[in-house]
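Troubleshooting: if your tokenizer reports a length mismatch, compare your output against this known-good record of 421 residues.
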Amino acid sequence: MKKVLYIAYFFPPVSGAGVQRSLKFSKYLQLYGWHPIIVTVKNSTYPLEDMSLLKDCMDNMEIVRVNSPLESIFRDGKAPKYLRPLLNYPDRHWGFALQAFLKARKYMKSVDAIITTSSPVSSHLAGYLLKTLYGVPWVADFRDPWTMNPFYKPYTRVHNWLDKKLEKAIIRKADFLIITTFDKEHHFVERPPDGKCLSIPNGYDEQDFININISRQKKGVFTIGYNGGLYDDVVTETFFKGFRQFINNYHLTPDHVKLSIYGYLRDPQVQEKWKDISEYVEFHGFIEHKASIQALYQTDVLLLLTRVGPHNSDYDNCIPGKTFEYLRSGQPILHVAQKECFVSNIIREFEQGVNAFQIEDVIEALNKLYTDWKAGQLINRVDPRILLFERRELTKQLADVLDHVTAYQHLGERKVTGEQV
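Known-good structure output:
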């Protein structure tokens, strides 16, 4: 079995959307002839933790954990403000990337390929150094864009210039690039050469749906469910204004309708958006991933919010990680976005919900869904096309990429501490 060194900051017990991708790839790569050696963080300051995810780590999976020096200082704002643009460059996780690089060197004689995944983008710098020094085939997985990210905000123009230089260097040095969307044109600062970039979107794991209690019985209260992180942004505001107006227009009480939020508040101030209608909102906080799958079936309609950032307005292909689990559940979806986007096309193509872009759209969509619910006419269906986004199928695509980049690797180009192997 071939070996691949996989540098991933976000890995269990750290939780969150980014964790699922690296975890599921690592879990299923062995089905396709690749044994992963994961290099991840030991002392993460990320606030979310889910110990249950460790059950997905195979018994023979080799996990190497390294420290991330000074990370807590950067996160807690202890570093002097005037030094942060320097100390946090290219991100506050650079200490992890450095330690991952140092640890990875001992494996270069035995591995056949390297995968780095961002964020954090500093992980790709570790891949760049390993590729340069040892010639091992390198696949860079951009879960999110870097300088073309809609929420990208460099400290200064100099940082912006340096970031673009580094991004171009990574694009050119990596043997292959992977993205999660279908828009190469607006994902990178420069378009990768044809045949060097592949979209492998996020997906869902069928095993996560085993032993889930699926009840389609009509409940006494029309329940809208939301899973994941909640941001204080224009899309969230659009939904809550529409939700509030829907309640008022139809004189509904908490005995008629409620919103159940399973997740965490990315911006604590977002609670102000439902302060005056708090009796209609149940905030359950962060729950384990398996429980979040069960929560999908404790609602009548699932709420999906697609954010659009202020930078790179042409980039409208952001796909929230929860999208495919929502689709797999078969539950109706209320999707709220600022404009037509890739997710709205998915919802329309799968015929599994309603898109809303303005407050009036939210009101109209909620009214229709509520009316259908009262009449027992809400449609619950799983489109068989969702199988295309099952994690095993997606991992096969990654394994094919690894097979491709290693097949064309000439032994004479491979370097181990300056010597050919």
